[in-house]
Amino acid sequence: MNALPAPLATQYLERPGGRIAFDDTGGPGRLVIAAPGMGDTRGSYRHVRSPLVTAGVRVVTMDLRGLGESAATFEDYSDEAVAADYLALVDHLGAGPAVLVGNSLSCASAVIAATEQPDSIAGLVVIGPFVRPADMAWWQKALFGAMLGGPWGRSAWVGYYRKTLYPGPRPPDHGEHVAALSANLREPGRMAAFRQMAANDHAGSGRRLADVATPSAVVMGTADPDYPDAVVEAQEVADVLGAQLVLVDGSGHYPQADNPATVVATIADVAGVGFT
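Above: the chain sequence. Below: its structure as tokens.
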């Protein structure tokens, strides 16, 4: 499960204000489109792509606007804007309905997309989901804003990502991925885009959770440090969504990287292809 697949050629989808980078394994299987969390790149799914293809899935991973290889020229970095990117990519590929996979912030956009254009969406998998306003004290929000706000923002985020968000197992190539992430955030416009995304409160997706009608799964690492109680948060979100709940013991905020086998099995199940 830890062997990395060969890199795929980057493709681009033109959108108002810029372009979205993605890669595509192709094939006739169920289309799965996965987007990373804020401050991350589509490389966060590097350990699940090949096993999903083997299971019979067509895997597309996309960079969020402003990050990875996507343009940092957009004016809008809201959850709704990223949801529109998800849907535009489904339409562009012409192979829907698709299963949408989100991680952290992009989960809110996946929820919005599933309710905005339900005929285009066959399922949802939300990993470490931020899909409703966070239950944080004012000082916690202020502290996070201060962490990202100054010239130290990039190094502060990278350090937090490297250590705190992976409290349990770490993939063998963790150092390489973090170094690539740090280099990406050095590029012009990327930290500004990141800061705009970090201000999203996810109220829009929170209002839509109960309206999701597609098969769904909530995946949460039990040691995810981004929630006061990760298990309680996951259970509550799963209850509102009517979703399958998958708890990954000891995993942090990125189970697709630190426990990929569980995430592969979950995505395959929602995609209707099974996995052994």
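Strands lie at 11-15, 18-24, 30-34, 57-62, 98-103, 121-127, 216-221, 244-248.
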